[in-house]
Amino acid sequence: MRTRLSCVLAVMLFLQGAPVLAQTPDPGPPGPEAASTEERVFDQAQLDQMAAPVALYPDPLLAQVLMASTYPGEVAEAAKWSKANPDAKGDAAVKQVAGQPWDPSVQALVAFPQVLALLAQDPVWVQRLGDAFLAQPDDLMNAVQRLRHKAQVAGNLQSNQYQNVTVQAPPPATTQPPPAASNSTIIIQPADPQTVYVPAYNPTTVYGTWSYPASPPAYYPPPPAYYPGSALLAGLAFGTGVAIIGSLWGNCDWHDNDIDIDVNRYNNINANNRIGNTQNKWQHNAVHRDGVPYRDARSRAQYGRQLDGARQRAAYRGDDAQRARARQQALDSMDRHGLERPATSNLQARDRVRQAQAERDNPRAAQRPGQRGPRDGQARQPLAQQRQNAGRARNNAFAGVRAPAGSRAQANRGRSSQAFAQRATPSRAMGQPVSRPSGAGMRQRGGGRR
C-alpha cells in the first residue's frame, strides 16, 4: 500500500512540473562482517597455516615471537648473531645484545637460540606472520586458539612437567567472537616460570586432520643440537630448558587479542631502555621496521612516516632522488635478510600466488615465473652461438672493403693459381699418365692435394 502511494505521489508531482528525485533504499552503515572483510589481508586458511609452527608455544614465548615478527629484518640479524654465538642463551645472552640497535622484543629472543634457529629457516614466513599480527590481530589470535583446540582434541596438548595447559571459560558478557568451535580459551604457561621448555612438533600431524588440504602447514625441523634423540611423530618434544628471569616480559591477552607487558620484568632486563608503569600494552615501533613495507593500507597509514608540509608537497609531485635512495635501501635490506619484496603489479602478485600453489602441489617441479631452467639455457646456447658465427661471416665478407691491399694480394694469388693449372706439360699433352708422388711421401714433405 505504501509503495502505491509513493508511485501516485510521484506521478502527481511530475504532472505539476516539480522535479522528481530518484529514491534508493538507504543501505545503512556497513555491518562489522562487511567491514572486516574489506580489511582482511589473509584468509582463515592462511592464518592457520602461518600460526601452526608456533601456536603451541607457551603464552609468554608466543607473545615475544609475535612482537618480534613485526621487525623481520632485525629477527634475521638476531638469528645470525645467535648462530655465531651458540653458547649464549638465557638472560646473559639478552644482556650481551643490549648494545644492538634492535627492538627489545627481538633482543629477548636471543635467550632462546632454538627459536631463532627455527625463525631463520624461512624469513618470508616471519615477515607474513608479523604482517598478519599488525593487520589482523584478532583473526590471528583466534587462529592460535583454533589450532590449540584441534591439538587438544587430537590428544597432543596436555599438562606435563614442562608446561601447564588450562582451559579458561569465557566471561559471561564477552563481545569477542569465539576463537574456535568452543568459546573457551586454552592457556599454556611454563610449569616453572623461571625455566622455559620450547616445544618442537610437526604441524602436519600434531593438529590431527588438517582442515585445508590445499594449504598444508610448513614443517621446519628443529635443530638437533637442542633436541637430542627426540623423534617427532604426533606429539610434542621438549629439549633442554632455558633458565630465565627477565627475558620474557610479554604475555598474551586473549580477551583483547593483544599483548600485556610486565613493566618490572621489562625494566630489569632492558636497563638502557626503561618504560613507565603506564606502558603496559605493547605498541609497534616503526623505527625498527628497517624499511620493510607494510602489507595493508591501515598499517601503512598508522605506522608510515609522517611528512612535513614541504616534503609532502614534494611527494605529491613525484619521486625525487632522496625517496629513490630510501626505496632502494629498503629493497636492499629485504634482499639482504631474505625477505619478500612487495609485488610491483597485479600480474606479479598473481604469479606469486600460482607459484606458491605449485610449490605446495609439487615442490621439486615448481619453478618461479620467468626463471629459466638449465634445459632452457642449454637449448638457447647453440642458437646464440649460431647468431654469433653468422655475424662473423657477414663481417668477413666485407673485410676487403676495409683492407684494399689485402684484398688485392688475395686476388693476385688466385690468378696465379689459375694460370698454373692451365699450363699443360708434354707428358700431359701426349696423353701419357703423369706419375704423382704417393700420399705418404706428400705427408712427409708436408704437401698434398689442395
UniProtKB/TrEMBL annotation:
Residues 1-22 form the signal peptide. The keyword Nucleus does not apply. Residues 291-450 are annotated as: Disordered. Pfam families: DUF3300 (PF11737). Residues 384-403 have a biased composition (Low complexity). Keywords: Signal. It comes from the Bacteria. The keyword Ribonucleoprotein does not apply. InterPro entries: DUF3300 (IPR021728). Residues 308-323, 349-363 have a biased composition (Basic and acidic residues). PANTHER family: OUTER MEMBRANE PROTEIN (PTHR40269:SF1), OUTER MEMBRANE PROTEIN-RELATED (PTHR40269). This is DUF3300 domain-containing protein. It comes from Pseudomonas muyukensis. The lineage of its organism: Bacteria, Pseudomonadati, Pseudomonadota, Gammaproteobacteria, Pseudomonadales.
